[in-house]
User: Fold this.
Amino acid sequence: MRSIVAIPARYGSERFPGKVLCDLEGQTMLERVWRAASEAEGFDAVVVLTDDERVGRECVRLGCRWHMTPAALPSGTDRIAYAVERWYSDAEIIVNLQADEPLVPPALLSDLRGALERNEHADVATPITAIARQEEVTSPTTCKVICRNDGTALYFSRAPIPADRKRGVGELGLYWKHIGIYAYRRRALERFAHLPPHPIECAESLEQLRLLLDGAVILCVPTDAVLVAVDTPADAERVRAYLRAR
Assistant:
């Protein structure tokens, strides 16, 4: 079963323009993400997808496989669907790894691929981790997930779910954080690209709801991995501090 890792890497970012090329202790963020993906076992290719020549020049410097894609594509998943249709139509499993995850462990990507291979009923596999701080439960920047007994996603939300009727927020052991990395079967990726955005997806600003609300089976894979998505310069400094300390 052919599988690839696709890294959508836009230069533009409202809160941190050019973040994919920011320096993180001697390597650009894109380089760290690409190297981690390249170390993951079981993949046939790692490809960077961008809409900007500056990112393209960095790809040339690194010697990685890359493609230029239209700037008008609305999301990283749409960018990957575009690329798979044109250049990787033989891929059966496609991992969507955002270029702002410089601490991603290679083994996590392999775990997601393996989860899809072992669970034929699943359309998508995605990592989740236990929430350790109440601030994350109430923060709208943290995506929470409720899972069924079989480990598949029931719902994702920026709101504190489940809600505690008496206290608002319940015991921490009830809460799981979603990490925005996805392993798609090709049919699920194609399905995503042809579905219109769902009103609830737009309200939550969570693109995974598009497939979930259409009936797709999203398998949640627990992990203890420590990841820091870089959305702001402050996040980048947190990553630098982590890299210096390890």
Summary: DSSP finds nine helices and 14 strands in the chain. The radius of gyration is 17 Å. The chain has a mean pLDDT of 96.
